[in-house]
Each structure stands twice: as structure tokens, then as C-alpha cells.
Amino acid sequence: MKKEKINKFAGFSLSAKERAAYYSGDIGRLIGMAIVAAYMTTFLAFQGLSMTSLAAFILIVKIVDAIDDVVFGFFVDKLKITEWKFLKRIVGEGKYLPWFRLTFAFCPIATILFFLMPSGAPDAVKIAWFTITYIIYDFSCTLIEVPMNSLVLTLTDNVDERNHILKMRGIITVLGGVFAGLALSVLISEGVGVPISVAAIIISVICLVAMIPLAKVGKEYNVELKNTENEKEEKYTLRQMWNCIKTNKYMTIVLISELIVCCTATAGAVQNLVSFYLLHNSLFLSIPVLLAFIPAMILSGFADKIAKRFGRKNSFVACSIIAGAMFLIMFFTGYENTWLVILLHTIYAIPNTIRSIFSGFIAPDTIEYARYKTGTDCSGIFFAMKSFITKATYSIGGSLGLFLMGLFGWVEVNATDFADLAAQNVAQPESALNGMWFVYTLIPALGTIAGAVVMMFYNLKEKDVELMAQCNAGKITREECEAQLSRKY
Question: Which of 6-10, 273-277, 448-452 has the lowest average pLDDT?
């Protein structure tokens, strides 16, 4: 007798076309934002600006932007722009997709504006250009980031489908991120010599095109919240928003963990400079990315199964500890043995890749819990708070890295790309080289491990979250849910 083939997509809400549009939109958004995150400090360092001055201005503009995240998150949850007649034809139906359709083009346009900084201008003009365009850029990121992060909850009420979407999104994002990062690194390397501004603008245009399909064919299937006392209530007060945050102790743990990790995320500020000055080639740190690529992709493909077997939290904590340990070992072994650096960096890259997927699984669980406890669908404000913590503290990490580089004696340079920098042959003192290694390895290693320790206190049961999701979607009653929960929440 022929065995009947099981359709793993049975019961899923989204069609293959709708899922593909979501992946394309999200990867366009994330890569577009990653361009500035990964190459901003290198670009600014090439402008001949003081590291300590840059550190101060980066901190100021990031804190300003972090505050507007929370404000915008409130408005995403409170305002129904689909009811505004002059916007209805543009934004379409839904809760978060209308915001995406309205705002998705702003981020790549703002990125292009940022990289158009005039290289020959006085330092004061460059600082002013950076401050103004970066605030515009960061606000444009907020406009798209809050609705896109919240969207995963309204696409479907099926937890298995949500986890499948998150897993595939993570894999596709890594694929796109690796290829985009390598493409940008190669373009600005010593062997090619394309100016950073030109390369960044090309990738920004590609990201803009990638987001168009979601704006055209995207659809939400889980917009309404069921089984609550507030079913007919459509707008929420600031007090209700605060109650959502106050009652969600699990989100608090996640945010504290992220706060620690981001405050110590100093590696990104100096990575390209470490590769050029310490490992003697701007592309050297691309080697471990390539070596880790296939095993990381294989493990990412099984991320949902690994999370189901060992738990989403446990999987995230284990990957974080392994990743942090590799950087800790790297610090003590030093940068002189470049092939040992490659080996340790490759081992680090594998768990670091898939831990981002596990992190993506955890955040929606905490939102589902809050929806169940409060009867209020305030996903936007939660992801805005998460974005606030990430941006405010990541700015501390980036600023700390640059500030320390200034203290360690960094010699200012003025170049368009690494080919130009190599031609100028600008040497850095030994103190700056050692400081660069300290900033790149030890600080983020300790922060990653400390963040994992905090996450050990997160004890929201995943089976209970699945029950809460079914209750929130109206598939079971609140009484049926309460009877099956492992404990009272």
C-alpha cells in the first residue's frame, strides 16, 4: 500500500507567494539597515574625524532615536491609519502591513543620503551632516522596524507556522546578509577599490526593490484578538500600554539580557579595521564567514526542530555561551597566530548565526503571553521597547569602542576605501593595535556570556505559549486554556 505523503504546510494560513513576499521584504529591510550598522564606523573613520568626537555624537543621536522608537510603537498600536480616507487606497487592509506600505521606501532613501557625505568638506560640516542624516536614517528605520517586527504575530495564529516563518526568515536573512556583506567587503577591498559610499548606495537600491513584493501581495490573517474582555475596544491608553510592559516579566528578562549584550557590542565598531591592521587584509575576517556558512545553514534548517527538542531558551543560551567562549579564547591567544584566529572565529560564527534565529523564536512568545494576560494587543509597543533597548545600548557599545580607540592612540586617516588606505600606508601605534584587539574580543565575549546567564532565569513554558496562542486566536476558550496550562500565570 502506497504511503500517503504528508503536507507539512497543511493548516498554514499564508500561501507560498505570500511567504516569499514576506521573506523578501524582511531581508531587504534587514540588509538595508545592516549596511549602516556594519560600515558606518569604517566610513566615518575614513573621513579623517576624531574617534572620541565621533563616539560622543553617535551616542547622542542614537539615544534620541531610541526614544522615538517607543513613541512610534505607541502610535502603531493606537492609530488605525486604514480608517484615514486619504491613506486608505495606499495602505490597504491589516494592522501592521499598512504601516509597512506607507514607510518602507524611507529607509533605503535615508541610507543613500547618509553615504552622500561630502568627503572634502570641513570637519564641522561632516559632523553636522552625520548628525542630521543619521537621525533621519534612524527614524526611517523605526518607521519600518516596529511594524515589521510585530507583523509576525498577525500573519498567522498557528505557532508551528510562525516558527517555520521565523526559521526560514532567519536562514534567508543570513544568506542575504553573508552575500551582501561579502559583496560590499570585496567592492571596498584593496583589490577592487570602489568607494564605500558608492557600494552602499548600490546595495540600498537593491534592498528597496526587494521590499516591493510585500507591499503589493502581503496579507495578515491574525489581526483580531479573541477571548478577552476588551474584544470591542480598538484604541488603547498609555496606562494600558504601561500595564502590558509591567506585567510581562519574561520580556523584562529578555530586555535585560539584550541590554547587557548590546552595551558590550564593541566588536562591530572596529571589525573592518581589525581585519586590515591586525590580520593584514580587509577581507581576512570574511574567511571564517565562508567556512562557517554551510554548517551554519544546515543547523539553521533544523533550528525549529532543535528548539522543539531542547527548548528555545536552552538553545539560545547554549549558542550564546559557545560564541562568547570562542571570543574569550581568541583574546588570550592573541592575533599573531592568524590561522588560529580563523579557526576560533569559524567556530564562533556557527552558533552565533543560529542563536539569532532562537532569539527570534523567543520574542513572539513573550508577546503572546502579554496578549493572553492583559487582553491587549500591544505588540508594537513591545517591539518598540525592544528596539529602544537595542538602539540605546548598542549606541553605548559602538561609542565605547570608538572612545577606547581614541584613548589607545588611534591615528586619524582620510580615505575612500581600503585600496586608498593601503596606498597611503598610514601606520598605527602598538597601543592602538592592542586596544583594537581588546575592543574587538574581550568586551563582547564577557557581555555575550553575561547575557546568556540572565536568560537562564527565563522560564516561560513553550507548551503553555502554544495554548495561549490558541486562546488568543479563539480556537479554544480561556477556561479550556487555563485547565491545560502547566501552572497558573
Answer: 6-10
Cell 587584509 -> residue: 281
Which pLDDT does position 427 carry in this prediction? 87
Pairwise CA distance, residues 455 & 10, whole Å: 34
Task: Name the nearest CA neighbour of 445 among 484, 404, 397.
Answer: 397
Q: Which residue segments constitute the domains of the chain, with CATH numbers given?
A: 16-219+234-458 (1.20.1250.20)
Closest to 77 measured CA to CA, from 367, 353, 408: 367
The CA-based dihedral angle spanning residues 118, 122, 125, 129, taken in that order and rounded to the nearest 10 degrees: 30
* pTM of this structure: 0.70
pLDDT band at 230 (very low <50, low <70, confident <90, very high): very low
Average pLDDT over residues 368-397: 71
Asked if 162 contacts 13 with a C-beta cutoff of 8 angstroms, the reply is: no
